[in-house]
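Throughout this chapter, every protein is written as a compact record of paired, labelled lines. An example of such a record is reproduced below:
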Amino acid sequence: MDEGYWAALLRDVEGETEVLPASAETEDVAASAAYAHGGKRWPSTAGSDSEEDWQLAEELLASGAPTTVTIAGYNRGGLLADFGALQGFVPASHLLAPILGQLPEQRAAALAARIGETLTVRVTEIDRDRCRLILSERLARDNQQADSLLANLRPGQTCQGQVTSLCQFGAFVDLGGFEGLIHISELSWGRVGSPAEVVQPGHQVDLLILDVDPDAHKVALSLKRLRPDPWAGVEVRYHIGQVVDAVVTNVVNFGAFARLEEGLEGLIHVSELAEGSFMHPRNVIHEGDHVRARVLQVDGGKRRIALTLRSADPQTRNHTDFPEWQYPA
C-alpha cells in the first residue's frame, strides 16, 4: 500500500473520530445517540484489564489478519465496536455499505441501524496514549480477497495484471486485489538497467506465475518468459566468422556489450575492440554506436557470444584464451 493511501486514511481518521463529551452543549444528535445506545464510551480508558486486548490488537496490526467485532454504538464519524475491554472506531468511509443520507438525522439513523451487527475488520492504527484503536471493514475485505486469490494461483499459470509501481529491483503488479512482483531479472531477456525501460505504472501486462507463497503473501511473476527465449537456437543463427550488425549497449572496463537482436547481447572483449593500445574502451567505442563485428565464439549453453571489431581472420584466433566472461553489476 502506498504512502499516499495511508496518509489519506489517517486524514479520514483524524476528521472522523472526534467524540464530544455527553455534557457538552455542542453535542449533536449522532454523538448523543452513541452514548444512549452504545454502553461503553469511546475512547475507553487504558488499564490492567485491557492490557491483553491491547497486545492482541498490536498482533493483529502487525500481521494484518482480520478479526470480528460487535457494533456497540456510533458517533457522527462512524461506528463504535467492542474489542474486549476496549472499544474501537470504524470510520464511515471504511464501511463496506455506504451510509445513505446527507442530513445529520438521516446519517444518525443509518449508523444507529448498525448497532448489534458483527463486522469483520482489520486493525489499522493503535495509539495507547490516546486510547485510540482504529478499525477498517473495507481493508479486511481486501485481505479476504487477497487470501482467496492466493489460494487459486499456481506456478506455471498465466495471468493478467496492471503495473502499480516501480522500484529499483522490479515492478509491482495488481493481480485483482493482490500485488505480485516482477523482479528486474524477469522483465526482459535482455539487460535491464531500470524497470522503467520496460514497463510503466498503468500498463496492462500478461504474466507467468513463477512462485506463490501464501504464508508470506508473495507472488513472483515473469514478463519475459511468455516471450521466445532469444538464446534458443542461437548456434543455428550465428556461427564463427559471421559478420553481424550490432548496437553497443554498455561499455565497461573489460570491453563492451553489443545487442545483436532483442534480448541477445554479445561481448566485445577489450582486446578485440581495436588494434594497438588505449587507456579505456570508451576511448574507442560508446553506448549507442552501431558497429559491424565478426563472431568469434558462440556458446548457447552458457548464453555467451564473443565478438571482435579487429580485422584479423577470426578462424586463426585462439578463442579458448578469452578471460572468464564478466557482466556489469
Q: What stands out?
A: Residues 137 and 190 are 44 Å apart (CA to CA).
